[in-house]
Amino acid sequence: MSDAPIILQVEDREEDVYLLQRALQRANLSATVHVATDGQDAIDYLAGHGRYADRRQFPLPYLVLLDLKLPLVMGLDVLGWVRSQPALRRLIIIVLSSSIHEADVQRAYELGANAFLVKPSDMNTLADMCQALKHFWLTYNQPPARPKRRD
Amino acid sequence: MTYCNFQSQDEGRHLRKQARLEAVAAQMRLAVEAAPNGMVMIDERGTITMVNAQLERMFGYDRREMLGQPIELLLPERYRGAHPGQRTAFFHSPEARAMGHGRDLFARRKDGTEFPVEVGLNPADTPDGRYVLAAVIDITARKRMEAELARVHSDLREHARTLEATVAERTAHLQQTIAELETVSYSLSHDLRGPLRTIQGFSQIVLADAGDRLRPEEKELLAKSINAAHRLDRLIQDVLAYTKVSRQNVVLTTVPLEALVRQIIDERPEFQPPRAELVIESPLAPVRGHEASLTQVITNLLDNAVKFVPPGRLPRIRIRTEPEGTMVRLWFEDNGIGIAPEAQDRLFAIFQRVHDEKTYPGTGIGLAIVRKAVERMGGSVRVESQPGQGSRFCVRLPRAEVS
């Protein structure tokens, strides 16, 4: 468990959390997935605020899967906040959204998203996506240096 | 000729003067008498020496009442004082010109009423001295017309202002409607697709996890749920694609059509052997278009061409271009099931399906997207077809300028 990469999934729909979990299983991607259920929750997690203060329990993720339409703070605002934090500027953020709106895609890249994935309605496609995620981001990609842990 | 009809006390002197002038002025007088303008001649002292019939009509005086009188008789009283000085100055440095230097001039009839006039001054030197012939035009009608015109102009400006206000108001209303529609389309994308993912994904998970324990009918029901959710998701995506081609900013550039068509075919196995035979009649003429929109157009037309074939038949599609003036015709000719003439009218309308859903699934939006995209690029699309004899789709687009 401890060697498994940490993924922070920012997602308010329980069903989508479950679907991703199943798709990751199908793709044989073993990761520890933490879930933030709204934009503010995601910021708290990444800042290590409140209940996320313990970095050993809630370590900074290897990558973030970010939904755009979220309660409280929207996904794009989370993205903007992350890129404004010196310690998080290089964090890998992959948008995983329902949106097939050109404007959302453009804005996400402008704000510094590393990739933009559209949630498929088909489970098999989602599993394929997780497979690709595993190969590209977790196997071949050279990740940026991690900020020093404060433990 | 009864022109000379002097009754004044200076009759004798006038007759002598008249006789001397006659030779010089006889022809001029003929012309003057018949002229459509009022004509009046004065001598150096400002005395009227000649008038024509039109001037009599204009001022209401008989010529006997005017001849020998100072020209100021014909002026409104308020101008009479300054006039002798002005006319003396003119006699000293005469030139043919309009009187008044652009000011509005008024004349006074016998009955005291005034009317606007235009006066042309022509000096005429005779052995008897210098005279000035003035041509007088009553411009009452013209002035009235000018006033009317000014009123119409002003009305028109007022109308334009009202129209602008109305347009601004309607535009604001329209923009609000568009903003609302965008909200709806945004919500379609985010909020409708979520539950669909749940329906389709969860059904797929159940089918995968518990498939062994289910009876065939139960598996069939789940498969149908999955299929229905998938179709609905396609529909949402197509509606969004339609609104996108309707709204997006279309900037036309030169598109190398042949390269684009080849790229689209290369990316899709269903457009390649053994699933289909697509023949490009090289070269395809380049066009002016929006590459993303054009990609959508070509993809949708090819999708239809390979889909609408009788079961078991290999789709064969010929793609070619031909010039048509400043346009290019891009043809897609297939060996499919064809389209009945009565169905061709509604073929390009949104949500119209002309073949049965079971054999040929689809959302009925593909060709609506094609038409909308082509029209936004300044082109048009039509079909020629007979049932059982294939279809020929023709997309007309502006020709690319040859550099």
What does this 3D model show about the protein?
The complex is a heterodimer of chains A (151) and B (403). By secondary structure, chain A is of the alpha/beta class. Helix content of chain A is 39%, strand content 16%. In chain A, helix 1 crosses helix 5 (123-140) and helix 2 (39-47) runs parallel beside helix 3 (75-84). The longest helix of chain A is centred in the C-terminal third of the chain and has 18 residues, at 123-140. By secondary structure, chain B is an alpha+beta fold. Chain B folds into 3 domains: 11-138, PAS domain (Beta-Lactamase); 141-240; 248-398, Histidine kinase-like ATPase, C-terminal domain (Heat Shock Protein 90, 2-Layer Sandwich), CATH 3.30.565. Chain B has 11 helices and 13 strands. The longest helix of chain B has 71 residues, at 140-210. Chain B is rod-shaped. The A-B interface holds A 13, 15-16, 19, 22, 68-69, 97-102, 119-124, 126 and B 186, 189-191, 193-194, 196-198, 200-202, 204-205, 208, 229-230, 233, 237, 240, 244, 248.
Summarize the structure.
In chain A, 39% of the residues lie in helices and 16% in strands. Chain A is built from 5 helices and 5 strands, in the order E-H-E-H-E-H-E-H-E-H. Chain B has 3 domains: 11-138, PAS domain (Beta-Lactamase), CATH 3.30.450; 141-240; 248-398, 2-Layer Sandwich (Heat Shock Protein 90), CATH 3.30.565.10.
